[in-house]
Amino acid sequence: MNSPTPPEVAPPAAEDISKDAFLGGAFHLLQPRRGGFRAGHDALLLAATVPRNATGHALDMGSGAGAVALAAAVRAPGLSLVLAEREPSMAALARASIALPENAALAPRLDVVELDLLAPRPVREAAGLADARFDLILSNPPFHPAGGRLSPDARRGAAKSLPEPGSLVRWLAVAGALSRHGARITMILRPDNLPELLEGMEGRFGALHLYAVHSAPGDPAIRLLASAVRGSRAPLLIRPPLVLDEALRRAVSSGEAEISVS
C-alpha cells in the first residue's frame, strides 16, 4: 500500500530561517524559526545513544532539518550517515545545513535523500536505499496518526504526523528491511506509541531496551527511548528512567551525555 502524498508546503522564506549552534558549536543547523519541526532535546537525546566508536553506515529515518544526523556525526567520526526526509523544504534545509562552512568537517560523511520511506521497495532502491544496507538506524519519527491532534502549521503537521494509523508498524517494517542482521535501531517516541512499537518490533528486532524519559521526578513519562537489535531474540529490558534534570539537560546540550542502549 502506498503512503499518501505529503501536503504541499512552500519552502520557508530566508527571514523565517534561523541558524543555530548545537553541542557547544560543534555543528550548526538551519531550521524554521517557528511553526516547523525545530530541533531540541529529543534529537540530542537520540544522538547521545550513538557510541563514539561507532563505524559503518547509519540512516536517520525522517531526518527533518538534520539535527540527529549532524549530532551523531559529531559524536562518531567513523560513522557515515544518510538523512532520509520526505518533506521537500525540510530536505532542502538539511542539504543547506550540511553545506554550511561550520559543518565542512562533517559534510563528507553526510548525504540527504528526499524520499517517502513508506514508498514501495523499488522506489527506495532507486533512491539508493538498498535492503540490508545499514549498521545503525536512528529515528525521531512523526508522533501523531492522521486522525489525531493536528498542527495549525502545514509544515509542522507534515513533520509530526505519520500518514495513517498503523504507520509506525510499517515504519519499523521498512527499518527492518533496510538494516543488516545485527544492526541496531534506536528511536525516541511518545509513550502512547508503545503498543505499535512492540507490534512493529515483533519478529524483526529483539534485545529491546526501553528508557522512560521524564521531565521531573514523579512526573509521567513524556518520551520513550527505545533501542533494539535486528534479528536478536534477547528479551525486553526496561532500563532505569531518564529524568531531564538540570545536569542531564546540560550534558545533552553540550554533547557530553552518554546513554547506553546495549
Mean pLDDT: 89
CATH superfamily: Vaccinia Virus protein VP39
* CATH topology grouping: Rossmann fold
SS field, number of helical segments:
8
Gap between N and C termini: 34 Å
Largest sheet: 9 strands, mixed
Q: Catalogue the unreliable spans.
A: 1-10, 145-152, 154-159
Structural class designation: alpha/beta
Shape: globular
Order of helices and strands: EEHEHEHEHEHHEHEEEEH
Tell me the name of the CATH class: Alpha Beta
Organism: Aureimonas ureilytica
Protein name: Methyltransferase small domain-containing protein
Domain Methyltransferase small: 45-148
Keywords: Methyltransferase, S-adenosyl-L-methionine, Transferase
Give a quick summary of the entry.
With 262 residues, the protein is an alpha/beta fold.
Layout of SSEs?
Elements: E1 17-22, E2 27-32, H1 41-47, E3 55-61, H2 67-75, E4 78-85, H3 88-98, E5 110-114, H4 121-126, E6 134-139, H5 154-160, H6 167-178, E7 179-189, H7 194-201, E8 205-214, E9 221-230, E10 237-238, E11 242-243, H8 246-254
Parallel strand pairs: 3-4, 3-6, 4-5, 6-7, 8-10, 8-11
Antiparallel strand pairs: 1-2, 7-9, 8-9
Helix pairs in contact: 1-2, 6-7
GO molecular function, one term: nucleic acid binding
Protein name: Methyltransferase small domain-containing protein
GO biological process, one term: methylation
